[in-house]
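cron nightly-structures :: item 1 of 1
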Amino acid sequence: MAALIKGIPVLPVEDMSATLSFYKEKLGFSEQFRDNDEAPGYVGLKRDSVEIHLSNVGGGLARTVASQTMARFTVEDVDGLYGEYSKHEGVIHPNGKLQQKPWGTREFGVLDPSGVCLTFYHDA
């Protein structure tokens, strides 16, 4: 039987420059590739074993699409990552403070510049 190996979320972006700065400077991702050096429309980022791709969504749709987009990432030290991200103003989602959830995870949320919600969690 075929097995799924890995997934890479493709996240909608309203302002590529601001979003790249956010993911690199505040979330600790590094750029792996881009489709265009001068005005990238598609960029790959990586931190540890997590990869994400950013796609510039035109026509004024980015914010609408982003507000409906969520991605979840398992981490080893969710408390440590929360501490790291909390050092930056406006990174933690207003309703996403670190907490134990009834479904057994300890997690927090981040809101990126386009409005995508990222959840980082550890199974308790």
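cron nightly-structures :: done
DSSP finds three helices and eight strands in the chain.
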